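Protein modeling request. Please complete all fields; requests missing the sequence field cannot be processed.
Requester role: graduate student
Desired output: 3D structure, token encoding
Chains: 1
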Amino acid sequence: MKVLLAGATGAIGRPLTRALIASGHQVLALSRSEESASAVRGLGAEPVRADALDRDELLRAVAGLRADAVIHQLTSLRRPRRTLDARDPSNLLRTRGTTHLLEAAEAIGARRFLTQSMVLGHGYADHGSRTFTEDDDFGVKHGNVADFIIDGLRSTEGQVLGAGHLDGIALRYGVFHGPGTWFDPTPGSRSTPVPRNGGGSVPWIHVADAAAATVAALERGRGGQAYTVAEDRSASWGEVAAATAAARGGRALRLPSWLLRRMVPYLGVLMADTTLRASHAKAVRELGWEPVRRATEHEVPSVKHRAS
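Delivered output (308 residues):
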């Protein structure tokens, strides 16, 4: 297929671009700057110069282009922010950005649209031993600072899954780990603080495994469906931080939960207050995909993707 990819130079975008091309797809990648366009060319994709938040610029940039699918992987999560509100960059990309990209999809004749969502949309709270599936309630607010994130996730999923003229698919990723993420094992990368007591346990996914799942969803996913893309077990923030630090030859940065809340309230809700488990069985069953890495392991195990 020919694919218009938004977010090609992000943590998941880079391995996704490579995976799409390796699978025989052609990638047109949105690029806001010449630096981004150069990076896109280096990945083997063709840049399309536009900002997804600028509707008119985006529609001008795609005028005359044709593509089979659009993949929305735009976020702005490089560093945790002190405050969150409706104007948060990632929120705007999930709300207004999704609207604009859906218009672009119609303009270029795309029939498929995949959007990035998060399994944490089931709710930032302690869910105990309950395991969530795609059939459970999604976009649940709990009256905390993460409600703005819930709003963004509900918006992008609602717009995409409700677009009757498209095969819309929502990919509910676990927390990303791997190169370019908050939990980057590359020597010299920045440490992200975690609760001293380890914090809650949440689903995780390596960016390379997330990319493989996205390609599988593009090729085999059912329109109108959401898929949980996560490892087979949840892990605490402390476990993942320790494994990441060990891989780069350092120590995890641990802080008291009260200090995390004061520094960045969102990190308190996310890391200290939330415990969540989710099943990826639907993605395994319908997409022929399963993860090959674990957030708590340093080495990639010799496990293969299931045959489709």
